[in-house]
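Possible race condition, two jobs.
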Amino acid sequence: MKLIVAIIQPHKLEAVKRELEAVNVNLMTVSNVLGQGRQKGVTQFYRGAKEAGGLLSKVRLDIAVNEAFVEPTITAITKGARTGDVGDGKIFIIDLHECIRISSSERGGVAIG
C-alpha cells in the first residue's frame, strides 16, 4: 500500500480528477495549500489576482492505493496536471504501513477501497 501525495496547480484539479477516474481511482482527499518551489519570488497571476512573495496557491491530493494502482495513479496525475512549465507540481510516494476503515474495522488493502 502507498500514500500518493500530489501538489498541483488549482486550475488543473478537474483535469487530474478526470484522469484519475479513467483509471478507477476515485477516493482522495483534496486540500488547498500554500507553497513555494523553484518559482519562488516570481509574481504569477491566478484568476486575475496577482500572487507574489513566493507562497502560491496549490492543491494537495492525498490518495491511498494498493500496489497495482501506484503507476496508473502517477500517470493519471502527471497527464492531468502537466503544462510543461515550472510550477506544475510534485508527486510524493510514501509507504503506507496500515489502513483501517473505521466503520467496519477492515484493515489493509481491502480498507483502502
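Job #2 (started ~2 s after job #1):
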Amino acid sequence: MTTANFKPQNALVWAEIPVTNLENAIAFYGAVFQYDLEKMDMGPNMIALIPTADGQGVAANIYEGKPAKDGSGATLHLAVPDNVEDAATRFKAAGGEVLAGDPVVIPAGRFVYGIDPDGNSIGLFEGN
C-alpha cells in the first residue's frame, strides 16, 4: 500500500505542549491567548485542554512533561484572539520572549515567533 497521495483534511490532528508547571502554564496561555483553560484528568496526566469553538476542530493540550527548554522543538502556531501585535505584547507581559522581527506574512495570515516560559517554540498566528 502506498501513501504517496495521502492528503488529509488536517495534517495536524492533536498537539501537546509540555510544561514544567501546569498551573503556571494555565495562567500564561490564558493571559496570552485568552483561553478558558480547565484542568482535566486524562489518565496518567492532568492536562489543560485548549478549547475549539465547536469542540470538533483540531485541539491541543498543555501537560506537565519535559519541554525542549531552548526553543529547539517543533513550533506550534496558535490562533490569537485579536492581532499579532497585541498578542505579542501579552506574550511578553506574561513572561514569554517574542523573537525579534516584523510579523511574517503568508497567504493564510501573519505570525511572529515566541518562546514560552518553559522554552517551547510558539507561533502567534493571526489568520486572514
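Residues 14-127 form a domain with the 2,3-Dihydroxybiphenyl 1,2-Dioxygenase; domain 1 fold (CATH 3.10.180.10).
Logs attached separately.
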